[in-house]
């Protein structure tokens, strides 16, 4: 029976399987090519290590890299969480009246268009610890896409639905909870996905700028440190951990977006024609 | 002919529900949408507001709903409780041209909305919601999301939502304009049946002579630029309208009479008829 089931399963899911198998195959080929090229050309390890050396560094230096990974993860996640609360909260505040928006939105835009890395030195002066400074930088960067998407979402509510809520005498609070917030969920999810990616980038860039050291330092510092010491395999290992963290964040935010939208929003529904 | 299947609620019958006195409405752009319109709607009536685009029929309906102020004149709802904002409370429902459903809510959640906003718990509202859904034939679709429904079904959900508060007055703004002819005729029959069964008063905005002649027992023809009442036809109170009515002499005569009036209203016969459009 199992033998009869097996080909049926593969056949039914062959598109899904291929979708997973093909990218894996491509990555494996590229890694093999990398190893072959490194071996064939004899490039020294301090210029380009092979994937084997990188994997070895990942295992050997796990004691140094894993606390750094944890620090970077913590900063990124806390920054994203703060940005979500702040972005949504301030967006709700901004759309309460035209005057509030007129007064405050330009400030938000000015802050947004200013490259945050340029503010980093200032933040380093004012923040009590380097960790807090990194957190503030990552927060500022992740905050604006969430804010501007939320403002856009809260303002894009179907006018007929707003009329309907007025007609039934909905309070401002009810309109917010039952109409405006759910209606802006797709915009929020876009903000979340952009903000998730940006908060990691900002956490790394801010650490480059801050140049922190010692026990509390994150992956970006370990990366720089490895470069100074010409420990290129470790640099690659740190890089791999960073991109893995990015992938995980992307996966989580995409999954949250799917959870929130898949039953009703067009963006999460497979076209049926 | 005068007897009906269900007794009509006497309370709302033969009493004015809406009184508009010399109402004008101009928008901030300077357009005069409605000029000096007076209209009294009695309980139990099925009134169609018929006219070309720009005749202010939708504006009139919104004013009757309490959505938007009047520029001059006054509007009153003599049989309704009036809230602190000077608007009638709970007695009026509106069906828009689009179904206007919340896509993130199920059919049940959408119909629950007016009661939820009134602070009724889901458990207490359930029976009312299911009754409303039953009236429009969607009892089995309570858990479906709007995107899973056809255009006609979405419109039915919209009607069920309007009925769930048991309103005295149902306002419909070209509700079936976007539907195909067959769906539209079916929904027309459903609205007639609901009107008969519940004794609700309906004001129905349309630009179709045939639709208004089929549905209403009073047709108000409106004229454009600025919007005002052109003619007011009380029709026979015959409630016995089914699909056969469409081929009756009475229906034909009504259509003819109303068509003529509508042509007058839009200035027909027109050599420059093209320009009107």
Structure description:
The complex is a heterodimer of chains A (273) and B (277). Chain A is mainly α and 273 residues long. Chain A folds into 2 domains: 1-42; 49-268, Orthogonal Bundle (MetI-like fold). Chain A is 81% helix and 0% strand. Chain A is built from 12 helices and no strands. Chain A has helices at residues 2-12, 14-41, 51-60, 62-94, 98-113, 116-126, 130-155, 159-167, 172-183, 185-210, 219-228, 232-261. The longest helix of chain A is centred in the N-terminal third of the chain and has 33 residues, at 62-94. In chain A, 33% of the residues are buried. The model of chain A has no long low-confidence stretch (mean pLDDT 87). Chain B has a domain at 13-91 and 167-271: P-loop containing nucleotide triphosphate hydrolases (Rossmann fold). Chain B is of the alpha/beta class. The longest helix of chain B is centred in the last third of the chain and has 18 residues, at 181-198. Chain B is 34% helix and 22% strand. Chain B is built from 8 helices and 9 strands. Chain B has helices at residues 57-65, 107-117, 122-135, 151-163, 181-198, 209-215, 249-265, 273-276, and strands at residues 16-26, 32-42, 46-50, 72-76, 92-95, 169-173, 201-206, 218-223, 228-234. Residues 1-12 and 270-277 of chain B have low confidence and may be disordered. In chain B, strand 8 and strand 9 form a beta hairpin. Chain B has a 6-stranded mixed sheet, with helices on both faces. Chain B has a 3-stranded antiparallel sheet with strand order 2-1-4, with helices on one face. The termini of chain B are far apart. Chains A and B meet through helix 8 and helix 9 of A and strand 5 and helix 2 of B.
């Amino acid at each position: 029976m199992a033998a009869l089931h097996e080909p049926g399963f593969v056949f039914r899911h062959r598109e899904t399987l291929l979708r997973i198998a093909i990218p894996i195959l491509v990555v494996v080929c590229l890694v093999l090519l990398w190893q072959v090229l490194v071996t064939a050309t004899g490039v020294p390890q301090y210029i380009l290590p092979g994937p084997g050396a990188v994997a070895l560094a990942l295992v050997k230096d796990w004691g140094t890299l894993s606390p750094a990974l944890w620090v970077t993860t913590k900063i990124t996640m806390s920054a994203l969480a703060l940005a979500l609360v702040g972005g949504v909260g301030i967006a709700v505040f901004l759309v309460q009246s035209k005057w509030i928006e007129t007064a405050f939105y330009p400030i938000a835009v000015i802050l947004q268009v200013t490259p945050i890395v340029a503010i980093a030195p200032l933040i380093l002066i004012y923040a009590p610890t380097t960790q807090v400074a990194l957190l503030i930088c990552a927060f500022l960067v992740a905050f604006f896409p969430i804010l501007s998407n939320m403002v856009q979402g809260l303002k894009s509510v179907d006018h007929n639905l707003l009329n309907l809520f007025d007609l039934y005498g909905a309070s401002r609070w009810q309109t917010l909870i039952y109409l405006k917030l759910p209606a802006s969920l797709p915009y929020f999810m876009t903000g979340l996905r952009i903000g998730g990616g940006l908060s990691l980038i900002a956490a790394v860039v801010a650490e480059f700028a801050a140049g922190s050291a010692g026990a509390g330092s994150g992956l970006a510092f370990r990366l720089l440190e490895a470069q100074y010491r010409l420990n290129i395999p470790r640099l690659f290992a740190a890089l791999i951990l960073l991109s893995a963290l990015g992938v995980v964040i992307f996966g989580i935010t995409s999954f949250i977006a799917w959870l929130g939208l898949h039953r009703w929003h067009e963006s999460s529904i497979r076209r049926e024609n | 002919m005068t007897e009906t299947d269900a007794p009509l609620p006497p309370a709302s019958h033969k009493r004015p529900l809406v009184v508009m006195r010399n109402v004008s409405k101009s928008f901030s752009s300077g357009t005069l949408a409605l000029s000096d319109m007076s209209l009294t709607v009695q309980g139990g009536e099925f009134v169609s507001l018929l006219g070309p685009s720009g005749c202010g029929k939708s504006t009139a309906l919104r004013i009757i709903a309490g959505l938007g102020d009047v520029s001059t004149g006054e509007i009153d709802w003599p049989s309704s409780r009036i809230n602190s904002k000077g608007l009638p409370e709970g007695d009026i429902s509106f069906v828009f041209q689009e179904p206007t459903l919340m896509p993130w809510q199920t059919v049940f959640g959408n119909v629950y909305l007016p009661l939820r906003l009134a602070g009724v718990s889901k458990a207490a509202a359930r029976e009312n919601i299911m009754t409303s859904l039953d009236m429009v034939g969607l009892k089995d679709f309570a858990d479906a999301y709007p995107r899973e429904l056809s255009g006609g079904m979405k419109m039915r959900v919209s009607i069920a939502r309007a009925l769930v508060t048991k309103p005295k007055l149902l306002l419909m703004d070209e509700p079936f304009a976007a539907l195909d002819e067959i769906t539209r005729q079916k929904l027309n029959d459903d609205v007639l049946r609901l009107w008969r069964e519940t004794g609700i008063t309906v004001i129905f905005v349309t630009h179709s002579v045939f639709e208004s002649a089929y549905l209403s027992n009073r047709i108000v023809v409106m004229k454009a630029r600025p919007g005002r009442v052109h003619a007011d036809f009380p029709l026979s109170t015959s409630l016995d309208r089914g699909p056969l009515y469409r081929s009756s002499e009475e229906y034909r005569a009504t259509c003819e009479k109303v068509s003529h009036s509508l042509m007058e209203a839009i200035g027909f016969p027109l050599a420059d008829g093209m320009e009107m459009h």
